[in-house]
Amino acid sequence: MKYTKVIALCSLFFVTITNYAQMPPSKIAEVVAKVEALPIEPGEWAGKAWMQMGNSRQEVDQYERITLMLDGAVILIEGIGKQGDQVVHHAVATLSYDPIKQAYQFQSLSRMDTLHQQIASCTRTVSLNGR
């Protein structure tokens, strides 16, 4: 009997999490519309770039790729910076919209750090296709 109650409580807990995690179609459509409205275009770019950490500025050969994921609800951004054959910077980021908080959410991950940022608005145009 004791195990039955524990299993029942665990099942209820997981059902609650699952229901909260699944957005209704109207909210998914809102997320996709907000992501589509951003001035960011999918594509690839490679060229000379620089990055600065403190007073140290490094010149790198940079590769960037922007991809729409999950039917357009999430933007995936990957950047790789090299000096010669050595990777000196490699990061990925996601950008999406949270319909509950009514704000864009940005998360970036690299070998050095993690950044979670809520974005009030995005006004700068980013294009990797030269448009």
Detailed description of the structure:
With 131 residues, the chain is of the alpha+beta class. A hairpin with a 3-residue loop joins strand 5 and strand 6. The N and C termini lie far apart (66 Å). The relative contact order is 0.16.
**What series of H and E elements makes up the topology?**
HHEEEEEE
Question: Poorly predicted ranges (pLDDT <50, ≥5 residues)?
Answer: 1-20, 123-131
**Cα-atom Rg, whole angstroms?**
20 Å
Count of discrete domains: 1
Walk across the major sheet and give the strand order. 1-2-3-4-5-6
Helix content: 10-25%
Characteristic key phrases:
about 130 residues; alpha+beta; 2 helices; disordered C terminus
Give a short summary of the structure:
This protein is α+β, with helices and mostly antiparallel strands. The protein has one domain.
How are the SSEs placed, and which strands pair?
Layout: H1 2-21, H2 25-36, E1 43-53, E2 56-69, E3 74-83, E4 86-98, E5 103-110, E6 114-119
Antiparallel strand pairs: 1-2, 2-3, 3-4, 4-5, 5-6
